[in-house]
Amino acid sequence: MNRLEGLEETTTLNNGVKMPRLGLGVWKTDNTSAKESVKEGIIKGYHLIDTAKQYGNESGVGEGIKEGLAETGMNRKDLFITTKLFNGDQGYQSTLDAVNGTLERLDLTYIDLYLIHWPVDGKYIDTWRAMEKLYHDGKVRAIGVSNFDNERLQNLLDNTNIVPAVNQMEFNPINQEKGIVEFNNHAGIQLEAWSPLGGGEALSNPEIKKIADKYSKSVAQVIIRWDWQKGIVTIPKSSHEKRIIQNSDIFDFKLSDDDIKTIDAIDKAKRSLWYDDFGWHNPEGQVVDAVDKWDDSPKNYKD
């Protein structure tokens, strides 16, 4: 399988929708850079693009989608666009209202996958019921969650009607969330990895470097290939053309079972962020839970 063929590979979600298995993320990217990354990603063969209102770059992503489609001659249906409901918009009616701003910023008529970004206690059940309505109304093709631990996910399953199609979690060699992976697999929920490369600690790991040298690949390519063979949907971020291509150049080799076991054994269950880090949930939290503001943000990010 070559690189472009690999980027067309999909997994079938629990509602029958087909989702690309490898995509492009744009976290911590301003609107101008997001536009260029998304445009370049589409030109280089990516079909899955992942953003969020909290990232403050939905407008840039929308412009990149438009320019990428124009450049390639593809249609909107050839892409799979994921975005996420901001925590401050959670609640039933506020969720129904918030999707309109997101669609306007992305300049789209529908979203392929809409996720609850974080489980805001006391609100995420009502939020999910609104997500179910958006799904039934056809504004979104699939709905899912992000950063839901097993306790909150079970509570969601017990009190709502639609099983989430996806749970997007931090997942990388340093933090493998094995209990959450098992729960999701049992429930028929596709796991998707954010921060799939695990930062400096994973990228400098000598065991992974040894595997990378064996295949004449980069450590990042080995990690993304490890995700691929484990059935994890992966969205590495890059704003550089060379790396956008390299991150998807993983289809001309296959990790051995021993290689997989070696990387599995690296797990430290070491999260970089978690629920109680956010000021939204914990007044002593270390992470400001707000929409990222960029100098190039359009006026419609005032909310």
Automatic annotation (TrEMBL):
Q: Which UniProt keywords apply?
A: NADP, Oxidoreductase
Give the superkingdom in one word: Bacteria
Residues the record annotates as the site (Lowers pKa of active site Tyr) are: 84
Q: Show the active-site residues.
A: 55 (proton donor)
Q: Write out the GO MF terms.
A: oxidoreductase activity, acting on the CH-OH group of donors, NAD or NADP as acceptor
Binding residues for substrate: 117
Gene3D superfamilies (alphabetical): NADP-dependent oxidoreductase domain
Q: What SUPFAM superfamilies does UniProt report for this protein, alphabetically?
A: NAD(P)-linked oxidoreductase (SSF51430)
What is one Pfam family matched by this protein?
Aldo_ket_red
Instruction: Cite the NADP-dependent oxidoreductase domain residue spans from the record.
Output: 22-267
Family affiliation: Belongs to the aldo/keto reductase family.
**Which PANTHER family does the protein's record reference?**
2,5-DIKETO-D-GLUCONIC ACID REDUCTASE (PTHR43827), NADP-DEPENDENT OXIDOREDUCTASE DOMAIN-CONTAINING PROTEIN (PTHR43827:SF3)
Q: Write down what this protein is called.
A: Aldo/keto reductase
